[in-house]
Amino acid sequence: MRSDPPLAYYDRAFLESDDGRPLRILAEYLDPLQRFRRERVHDTVVFFGSARLRQDGPLGRYYDEARELARQLTEWARALPCDADRFLVCTGGGGAIMEAANRGAADAGGRTIGLNIGLPHEQRPNPYITPALQLEFHYFFMRKLWFAYLARAMVAFPGGFGTLDEVFELLTLAQTKKLDRPLPVLLYGRSYWEEIVDFEALARHGMISPRDLALFRYVDTPAEAMAVLKEALSAEMRGTTPDIARTNRPGCGGEP
Description:
Blueprint: H1 12-15, H2 21-38, E1 44-48, H3 61-78, E2 88-91, H4 97-107, E3 112-117, E4 134-137, H5 140-150, E5 151-156, H6 161-175, E6 185-188, H7 190-196, H8 199-204, E7 216-219, H9 222-236
Parallel strand pairs: 1-2, 1-5, 2-3, 3-4, 5-6, 6-7
Helix pairs in contact: 3-4, 3-9
């Protein structure tokens, strides 16, 4: 007896084909949108940094400092006069710096987001992500959209190609005013970042405007980073909140 062919949206062979690619891309937009709406995620502070950094290696102190900064940020955010969580720590979901940030937020009893992506080697979800806020991506560009859409600040610890890609993506969005709000960008570890990227040379050669150097700040300790974040995010509380998670309580960034 002949069976009926599967409906297209149940047909795995079709969904994994070239013709099904637009549906896969759309799913990586709609599924996070539904998840963040359901979980009342207003906005995030994104932590970037290497997945290869070893806690016992020469740059190992950055693990402890990322964990401490995420803990302080989460404790501060949880104490805000708001009926919903604000400024959740969001990472790429993997190990090392990403694990440290998710772990610090969990230390403070907060929810924390991991936007993981399948890679051949080091990228595996760390155990400190809130289960309902652990997402898996195939497409880098869709993952970066969700980093940017909810971000109200970014802290970039030392990292490699992936970290550089993400930092420059958000700096470009800020430079070209494609964001509808200010986005504080903190480069954590001045000595590392000044060695890796000569921003002054970019300005000197006319590749960026001198005023673009104000798009980011160097910080070297959790206390210094926390002071910058508190100042910037306190001002953000008076701004707008994405429609997907809006409240009407005064002081939460919702509409009056």
